[in-house]
Amino acid sequence: MTADPPTAGAPADPPTAGAPADQQAADPPAAGPPRDVIDVVLGFARTLRHAGVPAGPDRVQAMLAALGHLDVLDPNQVYWAGRLTLCADPEDLDRYDAAFALYFGGRRPVRGRAAAEPPAVLRPAAFEPDAGAGEDQETEDRPSFAVHASRHEILRHKDVTALSPAERAQLQRLFALLAPRPSGRRSLRYTRAPRGRVDLERTVRRMLSRGGEPAELLRRRRRHKPRRLVLLVDVSGSMAPYADWLLRFGHAAVRSAPLNTEVFTLGTRLTRVTRELRLRDPDRALAAAGRAVPDWRGGTRLGDTLKAFTDRWGQRGVARGAVLVVCSDGWERGDPAELGVQLARLARLAHAVVWVNPHKGKDGFAPVTGGMVAALPHIDSLVAGHSFAALTELVEVIADA
Amino acid sequence: MASADTFDPAALGPTDIGRALEATGYLPDEGLSTAAFLALRMHRPLFLEGDAGVGKTSLAQALAEVLGAELVRLQCYEGIDAAQALYDWDFPRQVLHLRAAETAVRADPGAAAGTDAAELERSLYDRRFLIARPILRALEHSPSVLLIDEIDRADDEFEAFLLEVLADNAVTIPELGTIRAATPPLVVLTSNRTREVHDALKRRCLYHWVAHPSYEREVAILRRRLPEVSERLAREVAAAVRRMRDADLLKPPGVAESIDWAQALHLLGADTLDADRAAATLGAVLKYQEDAVRIRDTVLAELAG
Fold it and tell me: Chain A contacts of B207, Cβ < 8 Å?
């Protein structure tokens, strides 16, 4: 939601259903819609912002301009005027439809969106009540972050800022030092260089500026472009003690290469948190991410969420040639075979697949969970990521991938 | 129905644009014709997103035909820059020009006294040495439809540059001056969502998600594009493709694929969709082996009875 102040002149009370039908719309288009229409549209924009579509003031203005060219009395035209100007993302469309139906009295224009619905929304899995049991065992052998994890936080919408012990604070500051960045690859573009092939364009341009005298040969070489880094962090109940730290790691990655990093959370559903993690302050970024993720400490459906990721993002380009890091313990509620199939797809798309399993840092670890067994054939390296030292190691693995 | 020569979008409504598009063989739904209408009236770029093969690019072609305008296409790719999108100087010809002037002076020193260095330099940066790339061409030729295809493939920096050009509808060339469009071109941007396009760019556009057409519309599109295909085959192909889209495939087929498929079936002499021919031509509609296997077991198995 945009942080715009309440627009001047916004109506105090939202208009009743069917309000636009009562408005007069006799003005010529050049004069813009009449005042009443503006009120109705402002109220609608507010409803829409509540529904989670970031319809800022400029978009609302665009809708008013569009209505100036259309018939405000025709619900279909009002629907399209709003949809074309206020939405900016396929995910906005369902919210828009719901808000439109709610605000304008339940009439939903007929339209042909047969199979283009966003990929199926996954059903929430059963809540895991035993999140605390695993932590107890972890505390015995080794000082891990699980020790500090507050057991009172079983709220699904976890507030990650509500953590205070001094050690945590200290470690959190250390995270600012992490700068995960994949190595580069040769790009199609050139850059000037002292050695290399002759840069014909620049040489000739230089020649022209000197009146056509061939003075010197300028050279160029291929530029290097950093690979994309994609982090998929499991935030289900069994990963709860680590998810916070792994997202902090994600924040460090996003901060170090904002345009080349994508972070998603996995659980019962897929959530993209890249945008939230772009906030400079780690605590605020994590709080924003915590609000965006609806399935903190829920169940795990790795196969299904990975499929959602590959269908919606990975195959379209996000995973292509990228370094893909999956952070999960491999506890899979669904069918592990599906996880294997999806990882195989991702392995074909990505440059390298790294699996981070916090339990790997423990003595006697063997990748025996159903998900891990299914995943093993398709991953390039398996790292621990349970301590700060392990995460530094992960940075190196990413850089060498 | 509006004829292509005298089409004036400002005088008409969304339905008229829809009808004019239909006359060119492109069958839009209500949202798409409203989007096209508003893009023309509000002089805003049209930002189209949707699955591959739903007709984003063909809309621009149809619009160009409706408006009787030239279609200028800028295909984006990783690493595209201003020199490839806007303009470039034709260096070899400039050098040739210099050499020619030099030879002329050498041959006849007296005659060359009039042409001083400044004038020579001016003549070097003449419009005729400028190579117009797509954006400049769209600005110079009006009316025109500028199709910026697959903007998501270009780099972020390119978007910022594009914003600048779209805001002014003008290009400033330091050596030559500003070139402004007499009438701003209708700009159509398409994206396949391989990456998120910057909000600043989207904000200036009308956003439309192009969906797969409804069954009836798809039949109509097939009939229009392939008049030689029998009505029954068109209906059966549309129905089968519709089931494929619901089957949760890696790459659900778009309209382009169903047209290809119907054509392939027709070329094999089919009047109706039967399991054998469908299996033989499945490559026209499904592009992944996994998808083909899955459909063979479900949709095609049912066809076979």
Answer: 84-85, 87-89
